[in-house]
User: Fold this.
Amino acid sequence: MLLAKDLMQVEVITVQDDTELDEVLDLLMQEHISGAPVVDCEGLLVGVISQVDVFFGSRTRPGLNDGTAEGSGVTLVRDVMTSPPICAAEDMPVQDMAEIMCKLHIHRLPVVKRGRLSGMVSSTDICRAMCHRSPRVKAV
Assistant:
């Protein structure tokens, strides 16, 4: 059985929860990624930020109408990130991860061990693994 730890990318770009959104947008564009796990100052996983969060605000904090940190005029990651994060344990079967991603319409799952980020699995990682494990279809 294929597990999260078998697929996860261990070199993961993260952002801190007190980072300004302009910086996150630059990072996402520079690294050609659509989202990243969010960690606090102690390195604990506290959320996930995606392009959707950056452009349209939080899906989990609908009362936040202007996206600014307490009227400061500066928007921080913690103001619009999805929190708490949906994540996987290292020993979660890939099929369970795929079901979660499909059901929740998300494209990445942080993998955690004792609250700390240990890797990331994307929908592309799962597709790639399934393609390599399935028997080849023979042309007729």
Notes: The two ends are 31 Å apart (CA to CA). Helices lie at 4-7, 21-31, 51-56, 77-80, 94-104, 123-133.
